[in-house]
Design a protein that fits this description.
Elements (H helix, E strand, L loop, with lengths): L30 H8 L16 E4 L9 H9 L4 E2 H8 L3 H13 L3 E4 L10 H13 L1
Length: 137
């Protein structure tokens, strides 16, 4: 099977890149929006001690006055999700997620759990049973 041949695009077919004024960041980075999402700093700056693998679970339905980002977090957390997954699904940086989750934890709308830790070594009897089963094959 031969691969399809590539065709070059003509320069007219490529859309021109938008020109950005000096000092502005790219389209994906919106610091003003992130500042509005996280609030204007009305708290003391303390954050909950969470990391990327902390599991978040919703405890209640969001009240009508909940901001849209927090409502989205609560809606996604009907099943346990890690902070990294939430950050990826909502396309928000970890620092913003930690502020949002701190507010939700303080309002007792979500619960933070440590990730499930698997035992370091499996049970010896289980390993022996697997080994004997494989030998019988």
């Amino acid at each position: 099977m031969t691969p399809p041949k590539r065709q070059r695009r003509s320069p007219e077919a490529v859309p021109p890149e938008p020109s950005e004024p000096a000092g502005e960041q790219g389209e994906g980075s919106q610091p003003e929006r992130l500042y509005i999402i996280t609030g204007q700093g009305d708290d003391d700056g303390a954050r909950a001690s969470i990391d990327l693998v902390t599991l978040i679970v919703a405890r209640a339905e969001p009240p009508p006055t909940t901001p849209p980002e927090q409502s989205a977090v609560i809606g996604l957390c009907t099943a346990p999700l890690s902070v990294a997954e939430l950050s990826a699904y909502l396309d928000l940086p970890f620092s913003v997620m930690s502020v949002l989750l701190t507010e939700l934890l303080a309002a007792e709308l979500v619960q933070a759990r440590a990730p499930i830790v698997r035992s370091a070594l499996p049970d010896r009897s289980l390993l022996e049973a697997v080994m004997h089963g494989l030998q019988k094959l």
